[in-house]
Write a structure and sequence with these properties.
About 55% of the residues lie in helices and about 10% in strands. With about 100 residues, the protein is mostly helical. The mean pLDDT is about 85.
Length: about 100
C-alpha cells in the first residue's frame, strides 16, 4: 500500500521505470498503427467522395489528351469503381505513408 505523501515508483530502479515507459510507448504506437490500417479503406472512400477534380491522361496510342471527371454517385458507386479499376490494393493506396506518419 502507498502511504500518504509517498511518490509512486520512488523505490523502483530507473531502468525498470524506463522499460515500463518504453513498453507503453511501443504498445501505443502499435495500437495506432493497427487502428489506422484497419480504418484506412474508409479514409480512401471518404477522400475520393470529397474530391471534385479532373484526371488528365495522355494517350500515347492516339496522341489525344483525355479529361475524365472523377465523380461518384455515392458510397456504393465509389467502392465498386475502386474495386473494379484498382482491385483490393486500391483501398490501401498510401497506407504505408500514413502508417509511418501515425506511428
Amino acid at each position: 500500500q502507498w502511504k500518504k505523501g509517498e511518490r509512486r515508483g520512488a523505490g523502483t530502479p530507473i531502468g525498470e521505470r524506463l522499460r515500463d515507459s518504453c513498453g507503453y510507448l511501443v504498445m501505443g504506437a502499435a495500437s495506432k498503427f493497427i487502428a489506422s490500417t484497419i480504418t484506412y479503406p474508409i479514409q480512401v472512400i471518404k477522400a475520393r467522395l470529397q474530391q471534385r477534380s479532373q484526371v488528365v491522361e495522355f494517350s500515347e496510342a492516339t496522341g489525344e489528351i483525355i479529361v475524365t471527371k472523377r465523380e461518384y454517385a455515392g458510397v456504393a458507386d465509389c467502392v465498386g469503381r475502386i474495386w473494379r479499376n484498382e482491385g483490393f490494393v486500391g483501398f490501401f493506396k498510401g497506407c504505408v505513408t500514413n502508417a509511418i506518419r501515425v506511428a
